[in-house]
Structures are given as structure tokens and as C-alpha cells.
Amino acid sequence: MRFVFVHQNFPGQYRHVAKALVADGEHQVVAIGEAENLRRLDAVHPAIQRIGYNLAGHQVTTKNPWLQNAEAAVVRGQVVAGIARELKAKGFVPDVIAGHPGWGETLFLRDVFPTARMLSYCEFYYQGAGADVGFDPEFPGQADDAPRLRARNLTHLSAIESADVGVSPSQWQRSLYPSVMQPKIQVVHEGIDTAQVRPDPGAEVGLGALKLRAGDPVVTYVARNLEPYRGFHIFMRALPAILAGNPQAQVVVIGGDAVSYGSKRRDGQTFRQALTQEIGSRADWERVHFLGRVPYAQYLKVLQVSAVHVYLTYPFVLSWSLLEALSAGCLVVASDTAPVREVLREGKNALLLDFFDVEGLAARVTEALARRSAQDPLRAAARQTVVDGFDLGTRCLPAQIALLLEPTSPG
Questions:
Q1: 149-177 pLDDT, tens per residue?
Q2: How confident is the model at residue 411 (pLDDT cuts 50, 70, 90)?
Q3: CB 164 within 8 A of CB 374
Q4: Same domain for 182 and 218?
Q5: What pTM was estimated for this model as a whole?
Q6: 28-34 and 308-311: which strand pairing?
Q7: Are residues 103 and 232 in the same domain?
Q8: Domain of residue 367, residue span
């Protein structure tokens, strides 16, 4: 069979399934993504034909702020549709198209390939209230949030309408879509390689002269970027009490200084810069190690030496890093927010608390550090949660492949 995967940042959510399909030698796989991103990202498998597009000469012209995202999506859709027509002219007609609609790339592929089975990745349907927007009073919403986000959802509505099947990674993310569309959406997570991401009692992380080992009082925090959506401001404000209450503890923070979700600061500072200044001398910064973005192998070692891993999030997309932390056997202290509650239970496989409870976060981390060996049952249950529900090889990848190969009539 012939497959096309479309994702601005390919491989994105398609890393494992695209590799598995092309590796068996029975399928042909083409990936379409933004050229600049394809140049810096892993090719996944040499047999995957990657086609990059660029937006040079294309720009958003509307001055209407509610329409700018919609026009940008249409522009990308037009560019990708042009690539699709070139493929078709060369005789390549896919049996299956799977794409992330968030940037508009899949908008017109149904028109180019009307016989292809289309799967649309349903990651997040924007809400004017009740999810991320308006959740954090420190960063209040704007008066036009609801209509602006309604306009932003136009791309997602078109995508699910033209698709045969929608795919969400969690029940909560599926629940954000209009009820009339939810029956079309199946819940299949991308999966965690639990054979690779596992506890390692011999793990060690070198930070210059400092060596951190499994069993040491190491507190970890991970996010793609250090920003409020992932509770970075809450974590940072808890640091003085965590460090003061645990004189031997070392804190390791992984994440970049850009902004993945939400808005940048108006003063031009990164959130790390601003919060470091806010906290000032109240924290022992010699015991706080900001590593930035690190290679995957180093990231896994950090999880494996972690004594307590902090995961905080708005009601938003659930991070792969949380599931990987659980799979690595971390004791997780997490925010009691909707996407987290789908995976974690207080006192069963993690410790939960209110997202905004700075003092409570410091207290729970301190308690967990003081009773590290007593928390082993929670660590074991955390890993088992991922093995049972999110294992790549035995559960998620077979489900993804079955969904891709399932015959249906074009929608």
C-alpha cells in the first residue's frame, strides 16, 4: 500500500508508525513537511521519501486578527496541495493519507486524492473557556478569545469533515471536539517504548564535576519549553522551599527558553529569566541545573536518576514526557488537572495536587524525598500504568497500524 504522512514537523506523532510501515518492505511511505524542519529533524528511516515545502513568496495579507490563522492555514494547504498534484502527475496515488491538520496542510488533499482513505490527527480543539484559556488568572484571557478561537477551529472542522477517521491520543482531548463529531474520532495514543524507557538503578548523569546517580535526592522538571502552560512559574516559585527543606537535593531542569504554547512575555524576557529575577537570592542556584534542550539519551538518564519528577500542566495536550517519566519509574508529583487525571490517581501511581498550590508542591516534594524507599510501590505502579495502557510494541503501534489498514469508504 501507499501512504502519505503530512506534518509540519514530520515525523511528529508519526515517528513509530511510519517507520514500522516502511520497514516491512510491503509499503511505500511518503512524508510531507516544512523543508526547514525536515532538514533538522531525524529522517526516521531511509526508505521514507521526504518532501519538503517552503513558504517563500507566500504571506498572510489579511489585517483581520481573527482570520490570520485561517489564511495562514489556507496558504499552507495550497502549497501542500501543489505537491500532492505533482505526486499524482508522476503516478503516485496514495491509498491512505494521515495528517495533522493544525497548520492547514491537509485542507485540500481530499480534493487531489478523492479515493484515498484519510485520517486526521485530532490533537486539540480550541475552547473559549473550560480548558487552557482563562485557566490561569495570572495570564488572563482577552475579550475576543472565544470568537478568535472559533475562527481558529475552522481548519479543524474542515479536517474532520473531510476525513474518514479522526485520531486523538486521549479521551479528554477527544472530548473537546463537538459532540456530533466525536463518534468519528478514535482514541489511539502514539505509544511509549517501555523497553527503552525503563528504570535503571545504575543510571548516572554527569554535570561537570557533579555526578548524579539513581537513588540520590534529585528533583527533575521537563518541558519542551519553560513556560506557564507547563506550570514552570509554579515550579520555580516552589524552588526556594524545596531547596531549603532538602539541603542535599539537586534540581535538574530540561527545556528551552522559547514559547510553545501561549504568549511570550511583553518585556522581551524569557520566563526563566523573569522568574529567576523574581526569586533572586531566595534560592540556592548552585543546586539548580538548567540544561536547556538535550539529546534524548541524556534526557532518559535524567529521568532514571530522578527521585521526584514534577509535572504540571494547564488543561491542555498531555505531554509525552509525563508518560516517559512514569515508564522510567519516576515518582511523579503532578497537577490535578483534567488531562492528568486520565492517567494518574492520587496515592495509586502518583501524587496529585492543585496546579496553583506552590506551598503544597514544595511540601509534597519534600515529603517524597524524605520517604524515597517507601514510595517504591508508587514507582512500580507508575511504570505499570504505561506498560498496560501505552506500550508501543504490544498496544499502541498495533492499534495504529490496524487503523491505517482498515478499509472504509472515503468520507
A1: 999 999 999 999 999 999 999 999 999 99
A2: very low
A3: no
A4: no
A5: 0.94
A6: unpaired
A7: no
A8: 204-390
